[in-house]
Design brief:
The complex is a heterodimer of chains A (477) and B (354). With 477 residues, chain A is an all-alpha fold. Chain A folds into two domains: 21-183, no CATH class; 187-476, no CATH class. Chain A has 18 helices and two strands. Chain A has helices at residues 6-19, 24-43, 46-66, 70-107, 125-141, 150-158, 160-163, 171-179, 186-218, 226-257, 275-281, 284-295, 305-323, 327-348, 357-376, 391-399, 410-432, 447-464; strands at 380-383, 386-389. Chain A has a two-stranded antiparallel ribbon. The radius of gyration of chain A is 23 Å and the shape is globular. Chain B is α/β, with parallel strands linked by helices. Chain B has a domain at 68-170 and 220-342: Rossmann fold, CATH 3.40.50.1110. Chain B is built from ten helices and eleven strands. Chain B has helices at residues 2-30, 95-98, 108-120, 136-149, 174-191, 194-217, 229-252, 268-280, 304-315, 325-342, and strands at 40-43, 48-51, 56-57, 70-71, 88-92, 125-128, 155-161, 257-263, 287-293, 316-317, 320-323. In chain B, strand 10 and strand 11 (320-323) form a beta hairpin. The termini of chain B are far apart. The chains are: A mainly alpha (477), B alpha/beta (354). Chain A binds chain B through residues 5-7, 10, 186, 190, 205, 208-209, 212, 418, 421-422, 447, 451-452, 454-456, 458-459, 462-469, and chain B through 3, 6-7, 10, 13, 16-18, 20-21, 23-25, 28, 62, 64-66, 197-198, 201, 204-205, 208-209, 212-213, 317-320.
């Protein structure tokens, strides 16, 4: 069930109608059933997998809290970590590792026996695994008391607005909301409606319209000239931003309608002035998760510069791999790790100069663009019956685009027109929103500005929204 | 009490937003560079609408920013002006033939015109007389009119789709209602360019919602959906007279007929309809029937559910069930050799320009 479909809005209407007429405990039961239905819509068999993860983590949490010895607590944490990561590893990475191993053996001249399994990737496995792990790690660290109610804990893992593509919830922030009393306020409803509308605009107007041009041009990367190749990557940057942040906005808006607060995930990422700033603005829930549970666990910056850089690289490579079982995501992680390390080195350089803010933003945006090129180039071609990864060749084709010419063409004009039509209104409206109170949208502005923007956004959705229920990019992760 | 006051404010706020929404839409549609809706004219005999001659714009279904406008020429047919001294093939059908949501030069009739001309060594035009909401009755009227007004075509192609069964012969009693509705529509169009678009969009949402719940609730599926052979039998009973009429009218002028049955989504009803048409005209050398089936678009090996999903994802405009560019190309590839074989040769077919 995808957010940008009628089916979802009918489903939401039924859930809301039931929700407002039930008391808290019954609300949680209903939401859990609704979440199971929502997830089971894709493939009900994977509900057992989520159920297994939930049960193990619930049990591990209780055992950790009851255990007095640290060694015992650690054992239960390991049970949770191993079971979660083993499932993630098997379903998401098994074929990637066997394929890579086979390729390595073949390149060494050894006759590798091709061995892979037909594994279906369960939707959202990366999201709910990290979501659940935040709970067991926080209980282990003593930051959180273990959940006593299985139902409430299961709802924390499976809450339907954020189940499929995040934001990756933090147990310390969210679990208390399932235990405590919630209130539906007019302000919350207003904010929720705004976020849903804004998210829809980002997805069906900006992301889906740009997607057609991006997909078309990435499929013929060997023919693009310089300006078209450059503009295609710019268009992809906005496509992926609006696709993912659009999902997040709808998820947060849905939760707000029911009185829940979900963590924010984006804060105008392309206004970042350096790599560190970028990760404070892009997929915030993932970067915080990686910082708190991986980077700090590896030692963070406590053991000298070299260890800090090593930890940064490991964190970013695993962060890249989290996105998908493919080498392009690994290179994307390596690239962002290098950017972070490079930025740390720059900060320590005594003769560094003050970069004007606008130059820093433009530079960072272009560094991000190269990252998106690594991320998006995923071409596979069937050669003699075997799928061969051509991602690297595709990257080279893009980089060689200026050599194919720098003349302006109709294709370039088409992308510029699409960017002007969709991205300019996006940026203009984003500028009107207070970045510190993003979920309030434009409610701090005058009523007439608010009315005008709401009407314009609704008009754009009606006039230009692509209605083909395309899935969100981050669903595959 | 606070809630009541807040709700009242909220209601006013929503109302004002709706008014501004309409104003924004109206303003936007009047900007010179924005794409307009294609104009329609009411036809008393058909009790239906026809695309107005020499209009250009979008029409029917769900369209996004990238939906291309259609060009209607001065004769009311899709695409460029037609030089009537050249040989033509007349194609009649519903909106599936008209090709909304596809560029003028990518509609299968345009592609087929180019290929036919190339193969025959003489410019030959496939006249796209498709129109939204037209069924067999409308096609028969169109064929009659065409023969009266324009030079005799080389061939008449009738595009038959099971989805066209909803487009039945209007009753005389409906004329008054249709006239009133048309008068209202004309009045609205005189003052607003956005409201017709909005109405169109709302109608498309009804289709989208029906499609969403069709399988779950058993709601009547829209045109193009998969249906059983019994549907074809019912359609046959209701429309066989019109198809016979087309065949008689065209062949009496010595113009061969090709019934092109669209069954690309693999529906059993289309196969049945093609079978019934073939049986009806089996002894007629000047009438032929072809089925454009799932195998012609590479979907025949899939199971029923997968095939329908793939068909929707890969060959339609999404929620809008009309064919996309890919399907138009495949139709052109499928039909061009059939047309070449049925047309008198302008020169040997084996000769081709390098």
């Amino acid at each position: 069930m995808v957010f940008n479909t009628w089916l979802y809005f009918f489903f939401l209407a039924i859930v809301l109608a039931l929700y407002v007429n039930l008391h808290r405990s019954a609300q949680n039961t209903m939401l859990l059933c609704a979440s199971c239905f929502f997830y089971g819509w894709w493939d009900w068999r994977f509900l057992f997998l989520v159920g297994f993860t939930t049960t193990i983590d619930y049990w591990a949490g209780l055992k950790m809290e009851d255990a007095s010895e640290p060694a015992k607590r650690k054992r239960f944490l390991l049970v949770s970590l191993i079971s979660n990561l083993a499932m993630l590893g098997f379903f998401k990475y098994f074929n990637f590792f066997t394929d890579s191993f086979n390729a390595l053996l073949t390149s060494l001249g050894l006759n590798a026996r091709y061995w892979r399994m037909d594994i279906i990737l369960p939707v959202a496995i990366s999201f709910y695994t990290f979501h659940a792990l935040s709970y067991t790690i926080d209980v282990y660290r003593g930051n959180l008391r273990a959940a006593r109610s299985f139902k409430d804990f299961a709802l924390f893992v499976m809450f339907f607005p954020q189940l499929v593509a995040g934001p990756i919830g933090r147990a310390t922030h969210q679990l208390p909301q399932y235990f405590g009393k919630r209130q539906i306020t007019l302000e919350g409803v207003r904010e929720g409606m705004w976020l849903i509308l804004w998210g829809l605009f980002k997805k069906v107007c900006v992301a889906d319209n740009l997607a057609r041009l991006v997909d078309q041009n990435f499929s013929r990367s060997g023919e693009l000239n310089g300006p078209v190749a450059y503009l295609t990557v710019v268009a992809f940057a906005y496509q992926i931003y609006c696709d993912f942040s659009g999902y997040t906005d709808i998820a947060r808006g849905t939760a707000k309608l029911m009185g829940f607060d979900i963590l924010e995930n984006f804060r105008r990422p392309y206004a970042a002035i350096n790599p560190q700033d970028f990760w404070r603005r892009w997929h915030i829930s993932l970067s915080r998760w990686l910082r708190d549970y991986l980077y700090i666990s590896l030692g963070g910056n406590r053991f000298g510069r070299l260890f800090t850089y090593r930890n940064m690289m490991i964190t970013m490579i695993l962060g890249g791999l989290w996105h998908g079982a493919a080498w392009n995501f690994v290179w994307w992680g390596v690239y962002h790790g290098l950017l972070l390390v490079g930025y740390q080195l720059w900060l320590q350089w005594p003769n560094r100069w003050q970069v004007p803010r606008i130059v820093a933003i433009v530079t960072m945006f272009h560094l991000t663009l190269f990252g998106w090129l690594l991320f998006r180039c995923t071409r596979h071609e069937l050669v003699e019956g075997v799928w061969v990864d051509q991602s690297f060749q595709q990257i080279l084709e893009f980089l060689a685009a200026p050599a194919r010419g720098l003349s302006w063409s109709g294709d370039a004009t088409e992308i510029v027109a699409a960017l002007a039509l969709f991205v300019l209104p996006l940026l203009a409206i984003e500028r009107l929103i207070d970045p510190k109170r993003e979920d309030r949208g434009l409610y701090d502005r005058s009523t007439w500005v608010l009315i005008l923007v709401l009407a314009a956004v609704a008009f754009f959705i009606v006039r230009y929204g692509v209605q083909n229920a395309s899935a969100f990019i981050y669903f595959q992760f | 009490m606070d809630w009541v006051a807040a709700l009242r404010r909220f209601t006013w706020f929503l109302l004002l937003t709706c008014v501004v929404f309409l104003l924004v839409g109206e303003l936007w549609f009047r900007l010179p560079w924005t794409t307009k809706l294609v104009l329609w004219e009411f036809d008393e005999e058909l009790i239906s609408r026809l695309a107005a001659p020499q209009s250009r714009g979008i029409g029917l279904g769900n369209f996004s920013a990238l939906s291309p406008p259609m060009t209607i020429n001065r004769d009311g047919f899709r695409n460029d002006e037609i030089d009537w001294t050249l040989p033509t093939v007349l194609a009649v059908g519903s909106s599936e033939l008209l090709g909304p949501g596809v560029e003028d030069n990518e509609v299968w009739t345009a592609i087929a015109s180019e290929r036919l001309s190339h193969a025959r060594g003489r410019k030959t035009i496939v006249v796209n007389a498709g129109s939204g909401g037209y069924g067999p009755y409308h096609h028969s009227v169109q064929v009659h009119r065409f023969f009266e007004k324009y030079p005799r075509p080389l061939l008449v192609l009738v595009r038959v789709s099971v989805g066209d069964r909803y487009f039945v012969r209007p009753q005389a009693a409906e004329l008054a209602v249709a006239r009133n509705r048309n008068a209202l529509s004309t009045q609205i169009k005189r003052y607003s360019e956005f409201l017709p678009f909005l109405a169109n969009k709302i109608r498309a949402q009804i289709v989208a919602i029906q499609e969403t719940f069709a399988e779950i609730l058993g709601v009547k599926p829209s045109a193009g959906a998969h249906e059983s052979p019994a549907v074809a039998d019912a359609m046959w009973q209701a429309n066989v007279g019109f198809w016979r009429d087309i065949a008689v009218h065209a062949t009496s002028s010595r113009v061969p007929i090709l019934f092109f049955v669209d069954g690309a989504d693999g529906s059993a009803s289309a196969e049945r309809l093609a079978e019934l048409l073939s049986q009806e005209f089996r002894n007629r050398g000047d009438v032929s029937v072809v089925l454009f089936g799932a195998r012609d678009i590479g979907l025949s090996t899939h199971d029923d559910t997968t095939r329908r999903r793939l068909y929707r994802e890969q060959f339609t405009l999404g929620y809008d069930p009309h064919a996309n560019v890919r399907l138009h190309r495949l139709e052109a590839e499928f039909l061009t050799p059939l047309l070449i074989n049925r047309l008198p040769s302008a020169r040997p077919l084996s000769v081709s320009t390098p």
